[in-house]
Design brief:
alpha/beta, 4 helices, 3 strands, globular
Amino acid sequence: MEQFRNLYWQVLQFVKTNPKICYYTTDISRIGPLDAEQEAWLSREYYPQVSDIIGEDIYAAVIFSECHFKALVNNYIASPLLPVHDFIHFNYFTDKEEAMDWLMYMQKGQDLVIATKS
């Protein structure tokens, strides 16, 4: 857990120095699913700090192994005890290229919204 937190704190330092970046990808295909303690820490401590720093919606493409993805789809149970973070729009993939395509699609959509507001 300590190594997990340290890695995410390093990412948070990047976010602090680059708060305008709103599109992220993470590949957890090698480490497999996060455990309940990791999920709880992210939801209760980490994501609120990200929200405070960025202050707008972000998009995150998460890449899983095929086996991990199937296990999640078949066994997913939402935890009602963890806070919901509506500012993070997650999408899940087993292919890096598909994840990047989705992020580019979401960015183009946001650029279009911004352009029509101007």
